[in-house]
Amino acid sequence: MAEERSGAQPLEEGRGQQGRTASRGQQRRRQRSVFQYVAILFAAALVLLFYTYMMEQRQYEQLQRENQENIDDLKQSISAVQTLQGMTEENKQLKEQAKELEARLQALEGRLDTAEQDRASLQTQLQNAGLTIQAMDWFWQIDEAYVRGRYAQCRELIQHLEDAQLADCLPRESITDNGRFSPADRYLEIREKVVR
């Protein structure tokens, strides 16, 4: 009878260890999938930034070439004109072309400003995405500790999240459309129950 009990206990311990190993494996897979998703988002943002930069750079170089060609044409036209009437007419044309070039230059500067704003906006979005990733990593650990009933660990993780000032970076909307809490709402719910 005692031998049967001692034989049953290692089987139960082995099953418990297998369950924990499977749970850890699932956690690792989840973490890997989250990190892969984040890496894909990060790479997409970098590709968009690079693409925008290259397009604006190409347009700028093309306009520079056009401007240089226009300037060269104007110099040749001026040297070819010998009469006063021709010079006056050429002067009028030069003024018109200068206005067009100024308009083009202003348009290019506007595009460049827009590109700079877009780049700054994308950079801000990228930084915000990084903060959201960090906040979601903390949230995942907090939720896991809460679900497992490890309230002291949960309080400690909440304190770390708040010390890092990442609580406001948690998404306020659920992307799953399943009527469940958003990460920010779930965090507040856990915080109310754990922190007193």
Keywords:
196 residues; mainly alpha; 0% strand; rod-shaped
Structure description:
- The structure is a single chain.
- The mean pLDDT is 83.
- This protein has one domain (2-194).
- It is rod-shaped.
- By secondary structure, the chain is mainly alpha-helical.
- The protein is built from four helices and no strands.
Task: Write a compact overview of the structure shown.
Helices cover 86% and strands 0% of the residues.
Which structural class do you get from the secondary structure elements? mainly alpha
Number of domains: 1
Shape: rod-shaped
Order of helices and strands: HHHH
For this entry, what is the oligomeric state of its chains? single chain
What does the average pLDDT come to? 83
% residues in beta strands: under 5%
* Tally of contiguous helical segments: 4
Q: Segments where pLDDT lies below 50 for 5+ residues?
A: none
Q: CA-to-CA gap between the ends?
A: 50 Å
Structure summary, number of beta strands: 0
Largest sheet: none
